[in-house]
Write a structure and sequence with these properties.
Length: 113
């Protein structure tokens, strides 16, 4: 992995938690999103290659968000990422090289009805 440059962190993402709040008139679940934090990120499409951490193939709707952190944020697969108006479900998080000051968030596109 090549060294990451700060200028590559050019896009904003929001990490949030989604909770089910009930059902609508057609019996579809309704959700409420609560933002945890917003940060600058380097955004990459994660193609059909396998990710080292999960050993699972991701499709073309999968993304990798690399963020810089000072204190380790609590991130797991129960959280979501919003980028450019689209929501992504976190499928894994792994630290990058370079002194463990970066996190790579692997996320898959999710559709909520």
């Amino acid at each position: 992995m090549k060294k990451i440059r700060i200028k590559e962190f050019s896009q904003r993402i929001t990490v949030f938690v989604r909770t089910e709040t009930g059902r609508d008139s057609e019996d579809y679940p309704t959700y409420a999103d609560t933002d945890l934090f917003t940060t600058w990120a380097k955004v990459e499409t994660d193609g059909t290659e396998e990710a080292d951490m999960q050993k699972a193939a991701f499709d073309g709707t999968s993304m990798v968000f690399t963020i810089r952190f000072r204190h380790l944020p609590y991130l797991d697969n129960t959280l979501f990422v919003r980028h450019d108006g689209l929501d992504y479900e976190i499928v894994g998080v792994d630290p990058c090289e370079f002194g463990h000051i970066y996190l790579r968030i692997h996320a898959k596109r999710t559709v909520v009805q």
